Structures are given as structure tokens and as C-alpha cells.
């Protein structure tokens, strides 16, 4: 197994699959210095201002002359990104060959939707009742019996002192979580004097199952703990009526994101998830890709795969809309890779983006949906949302993803309300943080499995998770949300 990989024949850099000592020869180029794992080595002479090409696309330009064998990183290259771009639709759509769906053991809700968990959720409409919600969870664990798999709440600081767009986003996001099928029953917990009124929430929620959803306004009762327990008993009685049954994976919706990425994320974990996405979509299932800023610089991997001109227009609007969001706040669109990303070998946003979008596979893009909106079309979807792990994972859950595939090269323990599977890009991480990692895609870099084989393995594990196997984050009880905020706080 070589120590470096030349991803695309047009690339003028190779990527170290493991630490490469000076003197190591690859494609007739000797490493002139030590190359850290996940980092780039020049394969030929690159002059100042020449493009650095990786994944077959420019990921920045050289800021100094770079000799063959030299380490290519922040000290000698920089981004090409600036502001908005005028996109042109030149369709390059490859239809997937249909595959016979397999099945998983899930729950069938009264409205016909599939679910992979049967839990009771407490949704606070305002941060003031967070501790009440947590106390209700803590003191009512005896209700988790039979087919009821858990009792959880998702604290947040919003629901009051917000105006306009932020207020609407909070309302929409919380209503979407309330509708999520993994919750067999829901208690919506309010204070009573917040901006997000009970009447507003009902209007946002729309028609709902009165057997499934209960409401408690704490200021309206003498003892909110006693009243809350009585309502939770009703929730538990309703949720207990569901049991697992065989359901086709064509009814499964899977969110895809990455966090704490490294230079191997775009070579192992993300392409494995992309191949998985193609497999699931070919079986009639649904996948959803978010993190819009981490599409900047890699739009050509996605934009021309839109199913039609209308979807393309929505995608172009989403991309430039997010760039405008940056610019309105006086921020540059390219200031994204974190210190951990850079330590792991990612140099520019284009470098990060080209690796990130590998999670989208090759399927046509069926639809583009807004923040807090629900998935409406099967196949690959794009979702408006930032790169922030907690915000984007919450948005994926609210969109209706039953579970989330989260690739990482650095590791992270957090979990969204939907089961969150951590996929390591490298084997040392999978070994070191075995309490966090559910699947090791580092076997691709190790030469033990190719991308297709690893994707089949991942599909098998996804079906096990969908059938009730718990993720590492679930085992620890790690679940939280974060709501996208843009405006002022009163």
C-alpha cells in the first residue's frame, strides 16, 4: 500500500495516507521533507500564483515557488475564493441503476411514516423552562419501559427576546422537531409569557395527532412537575402501543455531515458515505447534505447534477444566499477551516469543500430545502444550513432525517436528537476514540477495504442502527440541539 495517494490525474499534489518521512519516493518524486498524515506534497514544480490542484479542481494558489517533494500547506498556498458567483446550468446527470431495497425493523406511525426510534421527547419552547424539562426527564425515567426506548429533552436559549427572522426560525425548527417520527410522543413545554406563544406554536405545527402531542404551560398550573408527570404518563401509554416491524429502506432518510475533518476525510470517510448515499438512493431511499459554506469552491461537483432547471435555481440561490449572509455581516466567505482542520491537512475552504461534498456521491440532486423545512422528495437533497456541527445536525434532524452519518478525522462526542453515527477517516482515531467512533473508514487508507466494500459495510451497520442498535453517542445519552441565529437579542 503506497504512503501517498494521487487522487486525480490532473492533481499536482499527492496526499499522505500516513506520516511520510523525507526521502520517501512516490511517482518518481522524493519527499524533500517530512509530510504529516493527511497533508499535501508537491508532485512537480509549482510556481508562485500557479493553481494547486487536488480532486481535479483548484483548491487555491501558490504564494511562493514550491519545489517537487515539498510540503504544501498554509505557509505556501492561499484560497482563490471571494464573493458571489454567477452559476450556469450545464446538466451532467447520471441516473442511478435501481437496486432492490432491503429492509430494517422500524416503527410505523399512525400517519404512515416510518421511524427508527420510539422515544418520548420534551420540547421546550423557551429557554426559561430548560431546567424544568431536564428535571422532568430525570424524575420520570420509570416511564421508559416496554417498547418506549427513551425520554429526552433538548434545551436551547431561545423562544423569547427574538424578533422577525430569528423568531420565525426558532418557531419553525421546534415545530419540525415536534413532528419528527422518531418521537412516539411529545410533550411541548412552555412558560406562558414568552414571545413564542402557545397560539403561534399551534399555528406553526398545523394539524397534529392529539393522542401523540401534549402541551404544558408552566405558569398555568400550580405544580409543573406533577402536571408534567401526568402528561408524560399519557405520552408513555400512547408510545407503548408501537412495536418494530419490517420496513423497506426506501422509507429511510439519512442526513450526512462532517466535522473535525482532516486531510483523509475527503479520501476515505466522505467518499464511503457518498457511495452509501448512492446505494440508498438507488434503493428508493433519501439522503440529505447540508453545510452550505463547505460547498463553496466545490460547486461544480454538485450544481450540474440538479434534476432540472428549477432545482438548479434553488441550489444557486442557496449558495449565493449564504455568501450574501457572510458579506452582510462583514465576513469573508472563505474563512472556514478550523485550527483542527488545518492541523489535519486541510489548507483552504476549497480544499475542505472538495472533500466535504464527496458525501453527496453521484446521484442527481432531487430537491433543495430551506432551514426548518421537511424533506419532500426521495433521492439526494440539499439543505440550507451552516457548517457548525450542532446547528447543521439539528437542521438535518428537523428536516426529517431518521439518523445522521457524521464523518470526522479528529473525533467528536456529540449527538443530535436523531441517532448520530460517527465515522472515522483514519484508523488511529478509531482506535484512540473507540468510545466515540461507530465505523472506521480508515480501512480504505489501510488497504483493507475499497470504497465500495466499505460502503456496503456501512449500509449493513445503518440497517442495524435503524433496527435498534444504539450509536456510541446514544449509549452515553449525548443529545443536544442548536438553533440557527442571525439577528438581535432584545
Keywords:
alpha/beta; Rossmann fold; 3 domains; seven-stranded parallel beta sheet; four-stranded antiparallel beta sheet; globular
Strand portion? 15-25%
Low-pLDDT ranges: none
CA-based shape: globular
Q: What's the main sheet like?
A: 7 strands, parallel
Backbone structural class: alpha/beta
Radius of gyration: 23 Å
Helical proportion, percent range: 25-40%
Oligomeric status of the shown chains? single chain
Task: Kindly report the average pLDDT value.
Answer: 94
Q: N-to-C terminal Cα separation, in Å?
A: 59 Å
Number of helices: 13
Describe this structure in words.
The protein has helices at 130-139, 164-178, 198-205, 224-239, 269-282, 309-328, 339-343, 349-356, 389-399, 427-432, 442-445, 451-466, 472-476, and strands at residues 4-5, 13-16, 25-26, 29-30, 40-42, 51-54, 57-62, 71-72, 77-78, 103-108, 114-115, 119-124, 151-153, 183-190, 213-217, 245-248, 253-258, 286-289, 365-369, 379-383, 403-408, 420-424, 439-440. It is of the alpha/beta class and 490 residues long. The chain has three domains: 4-78, Archaeosine Trna-guanine Transglycosylase, Chain: A, domain 4 (Roll), CATH 2.30.130; 119-241, Rossmann fold; 248-476. Strand 6 and strand 7 (57-62) form a beta hairpin. Helix 2 (164-178) packs across helix 3 and helix 2 packs across helix 9. The chain starts with a strand and ends in a 14-residue tail after the last helix. The mean pLDDT is 94.
Amino acid at each position: 500500500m503506497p504512503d501517498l495517494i494521487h487522487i486525480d490525474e490532473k492533481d499536482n499534489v499527492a496526499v499522505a495516507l500516513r506520516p511520510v518521512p523525507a526521502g520517501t519516493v512516490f511517482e518518481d518524486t522524493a519527499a524533500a521533507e517530512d509530510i504529516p498524515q493527511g497533508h499535501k506534497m508537491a508532485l512537480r514544480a509549482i510556481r508562485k500564483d500557479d493553481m494547486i490542484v487536488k480532486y481535479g479542481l483548484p483548491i487555491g494558489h501558490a504564494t511562493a515557488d514550491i519545489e517537487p517533494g515539498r510540503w504544501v500547506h498554509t505557509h505556501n498556498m492561499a484560497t482563490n475564493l471571494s464573493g458571489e458567483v454567477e452559476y450556469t446550468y450545464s446538466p451532467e446527470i447520471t441516473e442511478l441503476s435501481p437496486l432492490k431495497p432491503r429492509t430494517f425493523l422500524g416503527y410505523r406511525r399512525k400517519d404512515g411514516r416510518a421511524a427508527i426510534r420510539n422515544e418520548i421527547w420534551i420540547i421546550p419552547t423557551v429557554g426559561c423552562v430548560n431546567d424544568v424539562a431536564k428535571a422532568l426527564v430525570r424524575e420520570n425515567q420509570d416511564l421508559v419501559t416496554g417498547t418506549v426506548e427513551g425520554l429526552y429533552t433538548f434545551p436551547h436559549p431561545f423562544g423569547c427576546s427574538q424578533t422577525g427572522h430569528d423568531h420565525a426560525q426558532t418557531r419553525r425548527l421546534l415545530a419540525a422537531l415536534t413532528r419528527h417520527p422518531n418521537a412516539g410522543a411529545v410533550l411541548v413545554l412552555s412558560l406562558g409569557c414568552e414571545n413564542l406563544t402557545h397560539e403561534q406554536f399551534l399555528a406553526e405545527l398545523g394539524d397534529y395527532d392529539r393522542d401523540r402531542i401534549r402541551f404544558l404551560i408552566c405558569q398555568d398550573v400550580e405544580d409543573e412537575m406533577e402536571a408534567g408527570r401526568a402528561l408524560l404518563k399519557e405520552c408513555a401509554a400512547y408510545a407503548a402501543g408501537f412495536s418494530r416491524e419490517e420496513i423497506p429502506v426506501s422509507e429511510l432518510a439519512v442526513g450526512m455531515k462532517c466535522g473535525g475533518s482532516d486531510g483523509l476525510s475527503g479520501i476515505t470517510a466522505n467518499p464511503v458515505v457518498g457511495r452509501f448515499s448512492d446505494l440508498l438512493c438507488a434503493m428508493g431511499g433519501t439522503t440529505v447534505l447540508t453545510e452550505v459554506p463547505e460547498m463553496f469552491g466545490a460547486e461544480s461537483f454538485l450544481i450540474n447534477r440538479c434534476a432540472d432547471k428549477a432545482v438548479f435555481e434553488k441550489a444557486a440561490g442557496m449558495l449565493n444566499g449564504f455568501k450574501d449572509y457572510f458579506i452582510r455581516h462583514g465576513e469573508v466567505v472563505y474563512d472556514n477551516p478550523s485550527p483542527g482542520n488545518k492541523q489535519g491537512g486541510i489548507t483552504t475552504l476549497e480544499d475542505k469543500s472538495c472533500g466535504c461534498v464527496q458525501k453527496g456521491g453521484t446521484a442527481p440532486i432531487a430537491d433543495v430545502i430551506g432551514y426548518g423545512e421537511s424533506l419532500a422528495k426521495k433521492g439526494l437533497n440539499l439543505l440550507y444550513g451552516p457548517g457548525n456541527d450542532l446547528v447543521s445536525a439539528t437542521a438535518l434532524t428537523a428536516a426529517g432525517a431518521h439518523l445522521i452519518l457524521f464523518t470526522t478525522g479528529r473525533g467528536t462526542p456529540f449527538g443530535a436528537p436523531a441517532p448520530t453515527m460517527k465515522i472515522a477517516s483514519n484508523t488511529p482515531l478509531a482506535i484512540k476514540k473507540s468510545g466515540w467512533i461507530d465505523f472506521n473508514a480508515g480501512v480504505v487508507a489501510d488497504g483493507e477495504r475499497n470504497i465500495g466494500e466499505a460502503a456496503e459495510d456501512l449500509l449493513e451497520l445503518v440497517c442495524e442502527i435503524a433496527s435498534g442498535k444504539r450509536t456510541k453517542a446514544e449509549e452515553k445519552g449525548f443529545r443536544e440541539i442548536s438553533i440557527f441565529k442571525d439577528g438581535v437579542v432584545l
